Amino acid sequence: CLPPGLSDGEAMELLWKLRSRRRQSSPELPETVSCLTAPDGSTLYLVGTAHFSDSSKKDVATTIRAVQPDVVVVELCQYRVSMLKMDENTLLKEAKDINLEKVQQAIKQNGLMSGLMQILLLKVSAHITEQLGMAPGGEFREAFKEAGRIPFCKFHLGDRPIPVTFKRAIAALSFWQKARLAWGLCFLSDPISKEDVEKCKQKDLLEQTMSEMIGEFPALHQTIVAERDIYLTHTLRQATRCVEAPPNGQKVPGVVVGVVGMGHVPGIEKNWEKELNINEIMSVAPPSRFGWVLQTVFKGVLMGIVGYACYRAGGTLGRTLLSLPAVKGIVENLRLSRA
Length: 339
Hints:
Blueprint: H1 8-22, E1 33-37, E2 43-49, H2 54-67, E3 71-74, H3 88-96, H4 100-110, H5 112-132, H6 138-147, E4 154-157, H7 162-172, H8 175-186, H9 194-199, H10 203-216, H11 218-239, E5 243-245, E6 250-252, E7 255-261, H12 265-271, H13 289-313, H14 315-322, H15 325-338
Parallel strand pairs: 2-7, 3-4, 3-7
Antiparallel strand pairs: 1-2, 5-6
């Protein structure tokens, strides 16, 4: 609560001083937090998390409250920002419910192969959600909530757009690698416990898992992990800069909290002082002729199913099927592709 009668400038100065008093100069932070320094003296507190972990949420809240940051950066892009404002029950239901509309939206947004791969990864997420009874991204929602309680704190999305990541990942794999990966994701059924999730916060276990992944799909690791390490480092460095302090706009070193999966922490630390060029990891190759043929066949099969259903069920049900948004979208895409 601010005293009545203050001007805007006085109120800003008072809030700035209040936050400065709350900011701990030598905070005791969780062991999952790394500290990096920018050339201008600004500080980044990098919180490594497991995406389905209650203790990661506590680590994020503890860090933000202790350092009272100027900026909070999370490992999300604009395509996944909706999870910040959904409640746990809604997210839990969404993660478990993979329907035709979601499949169509993923294909429309990412192309056929990338869209189907996204659906398979959503299936993995749904499997973990069902096993743990916990929606993904809790640490990001915790960061969003805590950032909103701190005066002058900005909230940034730091990850590369997910369509770019999926398209580059699919383009980097051979046909047989795509088939092997899809097969493994389709038949994922191993039980997962909360203890298994917490082990993901141990760097040695994570490095072992990453090594196994590199051995089987090195191209996939490059696009999904290594390239995003570079992009996240770039956005974190953009945020870790001096800020203007009221009332005279004097430049002072900034304080930033970054919230990322533990698997990205070693790469960010490695790239922190390097010269980076993100243009190289933002380009997407045009779809191959094979991909175009496969997409046309896939759409044709769906149209055949709809047509057969109309023939067998009669006019009323046929008109109902053709009125569905998913079916109308497929018909419209076929019409445009012919044109």
